[in-house]
Structures are given as C-alpha cells and as structure tokens.
Amino acid sequence: MMEKLYKVFVYGTLKRGHGNHYFYCKDVTHVEEGSIIGRIYDLVHGAFPGIQIPHRSIIAHGTKDHEFDVELQETLTDPEFNTFNDYGDEWGRVFGEVITFRNPSSSFNDLDRLEGFRPGVKNCLYERALVLTESNGSIFPVWAYHMNNKDNMEEHGARRIESGTWRKN
Predict the structure, then answer these.
(1) Both ends of the chain: CA-CA distance in Å?
(2) Class of domain 5-160
(3) For residue 91, which of 128, 49, 51, 126 has the smallest C-alpha distance?
C-alpha cells in the first residue's frame, strides 16, 4: 500500500524556526520554499499572520473527509490546469513554505484544530482551501489556511505586509 502524502502551504507560525512547526509538523517528509497569489497581514500585534486569497483562485474547499481532500489534491496534476492567472495589482504573492506531510488523518485534524477550521461551520477564523503554489519552478496544488475573507482587513486592525513575507527566520 502506497503511503498517502499531502502538501500544505504555510506562511506563519508553522514555518521552520517558529513555535508551531515543532509541535504540528512531526509527520513532515519534505519542506521547500513556495509562494501563492494573495495578501498577507500581521494580526494581533504581529503574534501571527493571516492571508486572503482571491475567491477565483480557490480550486476546492477543505472538508471533514481528509482522505477525500488528499485524493483530490493528488488528482490535480494536469500541467495545463496548473498555471497562475493574472489577478491584477490588488493581489500579490505570499511567500512561505510548502510542507509535505504523511498521515493525513491525524495531521489534518491537528492543523484544522490549530487554525480553528471546522468544515461546514460558518464564521471560522480560517478556512482551508486548495490553491496553486509555485515552488522550484513547478506549479501544483496545495492546501492553505486563509482568513475568512473579510472585505477590509485594515478595519479589523490588521496591517498588510507589502513584501509578502511574515517574519523572516
């Protein structure tokens, strides 16, 4: 039986060198740098970040069925499908890491709990979505936790990080 692997784009406290990486990334098999289309914000006085992603860049929304989510990610490997679209000046790049995990059931449960994502429940702080990342010259789908797209994050005390990178290690 082939081991199931899945990829998650992280941009904050789950990156290497930050506190949550040690606790939540024990099943990691590989880490590489990557970027996605979006906007990144400093939240809660810089304690952690949040991202917004364009609605039209979301391929799928995370579900309670982690096995289904992993299978979906594995099926979306068609090179014609995996291209970045131009979303205009309002969107930039968010830079982070693509982490490859094994053991989807426990890892997804732990990450969903950390991010406050409850599939099917409205008004979660974060949602999990399948989006495209660019990493090492390749484009492929990854799961990313993003803010439940409030229209104007600055009104909620968030500060946009123009560089696209939250706290360099």
Answers:
(1) 37
(2) alpha beta
(3) 51
Cα atoms in the 13 Å half-sphere on the side-chain side of 24 = 22
**DSSP notation for 11-25:** -STTSTTSHHHHHH-
Nearest to residue 95, comparing CAs of 151, 154, 23, 35? 35
β partners of residue 32? 98
Higher pLDDT, 79 or 101: 101
What's CA 67's distance to the chain center, in Å? 18
Please report the pLDDT score of residue 126 as a whole number. 86
The 10s digit of each residue's pLDDT in 119-150 is 877 777 789 999 999 999 888 899 999 987 66
Angle, vertex CA 108, rays to CA 29 and CA 95, nearest 5: 65
- pLDDT at 2 (0 to 100): 59
Contact 126, 148 (CB under 8 A): yes
What is the three-class DSSP state of 158? Answer: coil
